[in-house]
Amino acid sequence: MDQRYATSPDQIPGMDTAEMRRRYLVEDLFVADEVRATYTHHDRVVLAGIMPVAGEVPLVGFPEIRSEEFFDHREAGIVNVGGPGAIEVDGTRYDLEHTGCLYVGRGASRVVASSAGPENPAKFYIVSAPAHTSYPTTAVAPGQGTVRELGDPLTSNRRTLNQYIHENGIRSCQVVMGVTTLHDGSMWNTMPAHTHDRRMEAYLYFDLPQDARIIHIFGRPQETRHLVMANEQAVISPSWSVHSGVGTSAYSFVWAMAGENQAFDDMDTFPVAEMR
């Protein structure tokens, strides 16, 4: 498990590109038959990826979280960004198609990931946060969450947002999670950009052509920075940072938050003309 310590906005001006990527960019999440995990001290969130190819892959505890089982004190949202697969939780199997979501509550013991076939393996993206109680493990099929249509093709940001884990959907302690898909011809996400000092957020960009890239904008709105990101890479966004991006083609992304509250619209937006 990789460790990422919390950062202050005052540190940003002194960082070069290599340091910004080392602190905020999460690469190589999906490696055959491994669990790749990153622990960020921003709200103690764990980002992980599992790509089962040869067989089943269990999600077990890590020394860094000091628990025998991964879910002893945690919950998680899981989105499949690959081929068909399944997550088995304490003997119950949940089939997940591409962009399907599973919430796993605190107290789950045996959690095992598998793919329908090695030629098109599942890729399970996991976002986990500490949990104070247990909610039922619940699956939701692609497109069956709370759907919101946002943006305008005239500003190149027409997108469909599917809320899966949220205060009016799948219940959780902290984790809020969903998938946004840009329409053909649109490239901008989350513009105007916003912050929410009460929650950290992480994006996983996917369904992006291998030769395409995302320019992800972060930092204080009056002093922004950017990261150039490829397909199936994640970015950690501290609560003080804006998070927005533009791609060289259309794409999808998993957004996930944890922190003070679960109110999706609790955000502080910044007009484009005021950003620097």
UniProtKB/TrEMBL annotation:
InterPro entries according to UniProt: KduI (IPR007045), KduI/IolB_isomerase (IPR021120), KduI_N (IPR027449), RmlC-like_jellyroll (IPR014710), RmlC_Cupin_sf (IPR011051)
Cofactor(s) essential for the protein: Zn(2+)
Co-factor: note: Binds 1 zinc ion per subunit.
GO BP terms, alphabetized: D-galacturonate catabolic process; D-glucuronate catabolic process; pectin catabolic process
EC number, UniProt record: 5.3.1.17
Classification via CDD domains: cupin_KduI_C (cd20491), cupin_KduI_N (cd20294)
Name of the molecule in the record: 4-deoxy-L-threo-5-hexosulose-uronate ketol-isomerase
